[in-house]
Write a structure and sequence with these properties.
Layout: H1 13-33, H2 35-54, H3 59-80
Helix pairs in contact: 2-3
């Protein structure tokens, strides 16, 4: 007969609540203090991923468009926040 482990197979409630609290606090801090920079980075990365998988017709033109779109995204972010 196999031996059962000595620890429970599910996390206790205090562990789940603590993990959720830490995640919520860190998310709030990131959104509060890094939202301007984070928006620009997310836009730039998503455009890069789109360019990598979408196979644009002109790579040099796409890089210029990507930079211009990132600048526009940053300007809109600064104006609205």
């Amino acid at each position: 007969m196999p031996q059962l482990p000595q620890f429970p197979s599910v996390f206790p409630l205090w562990w789940i609540a603590g993990t959720a609290s830490v995640g919520a606090i860190l998310s709030f801090l990131v959104l509060r203090f890094a939202s301007k920079r984070l928006g620009l980075v997310v836009t730039y990365v998503f455009l890069g991923v789109y360019g990598a998988f979408g196979l644009p017709a002109s790579l040099s033109g796409w890089q210029r468009s990507r930079a211009a779109l990132a600048i526009v995204s940053f300007a809109v972010n600064v104006v609205t926040i």
